[in-house]
Automatic annotation (TrEMBL), chains A, B:
This is tRNA 2-methylthio-N6-isopentenyl adenosine(37) hydroxylase MiaE-like protein. Residues 28-212 form the Ferritin-like domain. SUPFAM superfamilies: Ferritin-like (SSF47240). It comes from Streptomyces morookaense (Streptoverticillium morookaense). It holds the Pfam family MiaE_2.
Amino acid sequence: METHGTPENAAEHTGIAAQDWATASADPQYRAAVVDLLGALAYGELAAFERLAEDAKLAPSLDDKAELAKMASAEFQHFQRLRDRLTAIEADPTPAMEPFAAALDEFHRQTAPSDWLEGLVKAYVGDSIASDFYREVAVRLDSDTRALVLAVLDDTGHATFAVEKVRAAIEAEPRVGGRLALWARRLMGEALSQAQRVVADRDALSTMLVGGVADGFDLAEVGKMFSRITEAHTKRMAALGLAA
Amino acid sequence: METHGTPENAAEHTGIAAQDWATASADPQYRAAVVDLLGALAYGELAAFERLAEDAKLAPSLDDKAELAKMASAEFQHFQRLRDRLTAIEADPTPAMEPFAAALDEFHRQTAPSDWLEGLVKAYVGDSIASDFYREVAVRLDSDTRALVLAVLDDTGHATFAVEKVRAAIEAEPRVGGRLALWARRLMGEALSQAQRVVADRDALSTMLVGGVADGFDLAEVGKMFSRITEAHTKRMAALGLAA
């Protein structure tokens, strides 16, 4: 699975990626970066739970509502695994999550969907971007952390569900496509702006992202990663029938 | 567990209560009553999921938020078991749930908590009343249905959590107790009014509730059951430090 979305500089870190947690965590900077990463991911899952539960209220049918509640529940299971992992590596989960709460809450506040379809597009776009981001990071992780990260990114079935519903809605009323395309652009803009805020704030995490604990912070490298994620987003939107 | 909250007329139905589903469901009126009951319970669990997920947003800390999200997730697991059971007895879950959606949605609409403590009291009161009600019913059910109903009523840990938090809040600021007591009275009134609406609308379910498929509908008997549930509520509120 690690080959999915491999960034061009992955080769630099065959070192850490070949180690397990026990070996890799001897480096306190690496350890701090992993605690940051798991904290961000855990808070993201908890926020995703809340968002999906909220969207369930907008569902046009009981079946749709149950489907969203199921996905929300799956996100919560992921949250629990990440929190348990933080505890297992002797990191207090709450302080690990807190630095990421403001950015994620702000993202959700700025992008509250006004209807069922906007909610579906948001969940799909948000999950896909988050998934791309964590897969980029996963290739630089020790084998234990990588296995956990890839496991909680496992598709909860949301993507297929959202794509089907959105496509059907556009087919039934093509003008819906224009509105949702605008919405998806707004989501992407807000996601990038919050992600850049997190990267700028969290040194240990950023240093790991750009692939060099010793080399310091390289904004250009982070920029390239964001470009790759944006390109993938554009392709997904086209597949959905939306101009990105 | 069936001895818990046994109503005085339980003896009448040792007949059905001693049977399993395969035998009891030969009676189409009994079958219809069970489909109603499972439908109501399933929708209730889905609504409880939504309510807890909503309350999680009001949580004063990340730990409290995670605790509520966990309970919401547990309610969703219950919902899934009930839905699967409906499917297993060849009843379509959605039409089974739909007759109860209006009453439950109206209850939640009329009693939207305005803060974290109101949300906790609501969840505690609501869960306890629902639990009392289903335990009253459980004694009249065939052994298979009874086992399922009692399993999904299993405490999700919410009661202890809510009682601790509410007691601590009243201790810290006694005036909070007066406000929450009023709130609990409003909740109980609204719950009874919606429950009576459901009982009046659903013949098969009501007939089973009053304990006689052949004897027809007896409003006095339903009234007695509501009295027992109200008394239990009063005792719980006193234990919580609230005048009921």
